[in-house]
Each structure stands twice: as structure tokens, then as C-alpha cells.
């Protein structure tokens, strides 16, 4: 932790103990929110500006809760290590909650649940089975839950013949599939739908039902003391109807699920009382 962050954390602790100030008074520099700006509809760059569901939602939460946030675009594989080592202050993207990530990060309440889709070229004859077996080469983003699922369930299964190819982002994976370098791509439902809605020449061959919760995340131990503030901001965003407005501006047909979504029992920051929502 650098000197400025240490001072800010100590100041925050003393103010909270005294009970006379809120977080926004203690914040002396913008919080750095890490995003992957090649992950539509959650985060992407257009015309020199960051856009997407997660980006717009975080801006709304920051305004509502009196936070100052700046976004930093990083490759996906570097985002979680950067947050775990406090080189950024929070992670704002379509982040799936997993047991492994729970060991190094602290999660907010979940604001989304997702399944995975198997994408193939629109003119491909592959179905959901043949796209995931029988000598197929499958693309997935390195470090993603989709990549981990393929590795554990297909690559390491001696009875299934597949090759897994890792990509820095899904845009490149889709482009490689289009020119025949890979046979299929496994990606989250909302991202698959976004590719299709934007005219990519792909189709969904089938769904891998996961029901995975997604959330924002901070460094383990919440060194900036913002977890409760983020939780309150998420709930107010949802209850005001602004969340539905943001989601449907990028994904018009998406189903808005109740917030908080279901969270696995192993997530320590989702035990009662939940920061910002219960007695602390």
C-alpha cells in the first residue's frame, strides 16, 4: 500500500470510530476502478470514452454516494492481480464470483447472474455437442471462468478430444473463429447477445447453465473502507429504477433479476450483517 493510501485508510478508520464524518469526506483522491474495455456490454471504449453497463452503473453509484472514480483499462488477466495487490481500488466489470477469487478479493452484493453460451459461426453445422468435443478447438478468454470450466470439464477429461485456445479478449476470439482458426467460443450470455445484436456473423449453438453471480470487488480486507458504500449504491441504483434503465440501454431484451442476486455460502463478505445494508 502506498503512503497516500495508508494515510487515507488510517484517517477513514479514525473518522468512523468518531462517528462524525462519512467516507466522502475522507476521500482525498479518486478511486481507481479497473475495467477491461473490450468486454461489451459491460465495458468498452467508443470515441475515446468508456461505456457499458458496469461503467455507467459505477458512474451513477459514484454520483449518488459522493465518490470520485476514474477508470483504468487493463487486460483481463492482469485485473484481479492488480486489485489483489492494491494497484487499483476496485474492479468494475462483468466479474463472476468464484471460490478462488473469494480468497484474494472482497465482493459487493451480487448485481447479476449469468450463464455461458457456445458461439459458432452463423453458417457452421456444429451443434452444442460437436462444438465442444470431437477434435474441436475452443476459444475462451484467459483467466475467465469460461476458460476454467473448459479446462476442468473438457480438456482434463480423457474421453473428450478438444483443444483450448486462450485469448486476451473475446473480440479477438470471435475474429479468429470467423477466419477458421477455432471452431467455437464460450462466452457469457450477455456478451454473446451483444455480439449478435451488433451484427457479428455468429449464432448460439447452446447454453451451459451456470447461474453464476457477478459483483464488484475490492481488495481483500477492504482497505479503502468502501464496500458498504458500494453496497448501498448498488441497492439505491436498483430500487430507483436506474439500474434497469442502464441495462436496457445496452441490452434491450435482458431480463432484470432482483438485486441482490443469489450468492454462494462461501463468500465471507455476504454474511450477516452485510456491509452497508445491516448493522455494522
Give a short overview.
The protein has helices spanning 3-18, 23-26, 53-65, 76-84, 99-102, 145-155, 170-178, 189-197, 227-239, 242-250, and strands at residues 31-35, 38-39, 43-46, 49-51, 69-73, 90-91, 105-107, 112-121, 136-141, 162-167, 184-188, 202-214, 217-219. It has 280 residues and is an alpha/beta fold.
Task: Explain this structure.
With 280 residues, the chain is α/β, with parallel strands linked by helices. It is 35% helix and 24% strand. It contains ten helices and 13 strands. The chain has helices at 3-18, 23-26, 53-65, 76-84, 99-102, 145-155, 170-178, 189-197, 227-239, 242-250, and strands at 31-35, 38-39, 43-46, 49-51, 69-73, 90-91, 105-107, 112-121, 136-141, 162-167, 184-188, 202-214, 217-219. The chain has a five-stranded mixed β-sheet, sandwiched between helices. A five-stranded mixed β-sheet has the order 10-9-11-8-12, with helices on both faces. Strands 2-3-4 form a three-stranded antiparallel β-sheet. A hairpin with a 3-residue loop joins strand 2 and strand 3 (43-46). Helix 3 crosses helix 9 (227-239) and helix 3 (53-65) runs antiparallel to helix 10. The longest helix has 16 residues, at 3-18.
Amino acid at each position: 500500500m502506498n503512503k497516500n493510501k495508508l494515510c487515507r485508510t488510517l484517517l477513514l478508520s479514525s473518522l468512523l470510530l468518531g462517528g462524525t464524518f462519512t467516507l466522502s469526506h475522507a476521500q482525498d483522491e479518486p478511486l481507481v476502478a479497473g475495467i477491461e474495455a473490450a468486454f461489451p456490454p459491460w465495458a468498452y471504449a467508443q470515441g475515446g470514452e468508456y461505456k457499458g453497463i458496469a461503467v455507467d452503473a459505477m458512474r451513477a453509484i459514484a454520483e449518488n454516494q459522493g465518490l470520485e472514480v476514474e477508470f483504468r483499462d487493463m487486460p483481463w488477466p492482469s485485473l484481479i492481480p492488480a486489485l489483489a495487490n492494491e494497484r487499483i481500488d476496485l474492479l468494475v466489470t462483468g466479474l463472476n464470483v468464484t471460490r478462488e477469487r473469494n480468497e484474494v478479493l472482497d465482493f459487493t452484493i451480487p448485481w447479476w447472474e449469468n450463464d455461458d453460451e457456445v458461439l459458432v459461426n452463423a453458417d457452421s453445422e456444429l451443434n452444442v455437442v460437436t462444438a465442444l468435443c470431437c477434435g474441436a478447438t475452443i476459444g475462451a478468454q484467459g483467466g475467465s471462468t469460461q476458460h476454467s470450466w473448459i479446462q476442468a470439464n473438457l480438456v482434463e477429461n480423457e474421453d473428450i478430444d478438444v483443444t483450448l485456445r486462450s485469448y486476451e479478449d473475446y473480440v479477438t476470439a470471435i475474429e479468429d473463429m470467423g477466419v477458421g482458426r477455432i471452431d467455437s467460443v464460450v462466452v457469457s450470455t450477455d456478451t454473446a447477445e451483444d455480439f449478435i445484436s451488433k451484427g457479428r456473423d455468429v449464432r448460439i449453438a447452446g447454453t451451459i447453465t451456470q447461474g453464476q453471480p457477478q459483483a464488484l470487488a475490492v481488495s481483500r480486507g477492504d482497505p479503502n473502507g468502501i464496500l458498504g458504500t458500494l453496497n448501498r449504491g448498488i441497492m439505491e441504483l436498483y430500487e430507483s429504477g436506474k439500474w434497469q434503465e442502464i441495462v436496457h440501454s445496452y441490452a434491450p431484451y435482458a431480463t432484470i433479476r432482483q438485486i441482490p442476486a443469489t450468492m454462494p455460502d462461501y463468500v465471507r463478505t455476504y454474511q450477516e450483517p452485510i456491509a452497508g445494508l445491516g448493522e455494522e
